[in-house]
Amino acid sequence: MSTFTRGFRGRRRGEDDRLPPGQYLAEDFPVLSAGPTPHVPLDRWEFTIDTEAGQTHRWTWRELTALPYEEPAVDIHCVTSWSKLGTTWRGVSLDVLFEDVETTADYALVHSYGGYTTNLPLDDLLDGKAWIAYRYEGEDLTPSHGGPARLLVPHLYFWKSAKWVRGIRLLTEDWPGFWETAGYHNYGDPWREQRYADD
C-alpha cells in the first residue's frame, strides 16, 4: 500500500519550494488560448458585475483605470505544468469593484470577450485574492496575454485567471465554465494538483 498520494514526486535537491508539485520553472511566458485572440478597442471595452438580483454595475476603460490600483508581485501556475515566480502586475482589486455590490451569491461565473468562461467561489475573488489586471512587468498587457485586461487569481491554476475579461455574473449555484465543462477540475488548486475532474 502506497503512503504517497497520486502524483506525488517529492522535490529534487535545489528545487524552489515555491513550485507546487508537478510544476517546472518557466523562464518565458507561454501563450495558451482556447480560441482566437480578441482585440477589443478601449473605447468599446467595459467590465460589468451582474448580481443574482439582476443589478448591473458597469465600468468603462477610463473608469476602471482611474480607480485605485495595486501592484501585486505573485507566482503564477499553469495547469500545463509551468510556473513563473515573482511576476509583477498592475490592476484593480476585486474588493474595490465589489464595494457597492449587494449580493448573497456564493459563486461567480467570469465571462470574457471571445466567449470564454470560468467559475470560481466568490470568496476566491475577495479579500485581496484577485485583481482585474491591465499591466504586466511595467508594460500594458498585450492581447496575447489577455489584454487589455484579464482576471488575475494567482492562488489557483492560471485558467481561472480569465483573459480578455468583460464581466462577472454572480450566482447562487455553481455553474461550470469552459474548461470545467471539458473535464478540468472545478476548483483548480495547484498545491493539491487539482488539474482534472477526478483529482
UniProtKB/TrEMBL annotation:
Q: Identify the residues that the record assigns to the Oxidoreductase molybdopterin-binding domain, covering every copy.
A: 35-179
Which species expresses this protein natively?
Microbispora rosea
- State the InterPro entries in the record: OxRdtase_Mopterin-bd_dom, OxRdtase_Mopterin-bd_sf
Where is the segment annotated Disordered? 1-22
Protein name as it appears in the record: DMSO/TMAO reductase YedYZ, molybdopterin-dependent catalytic subunit
Q: Which SUPFAM superfamilies match?
A: Oxidoreductase molybdopterin-binding domain
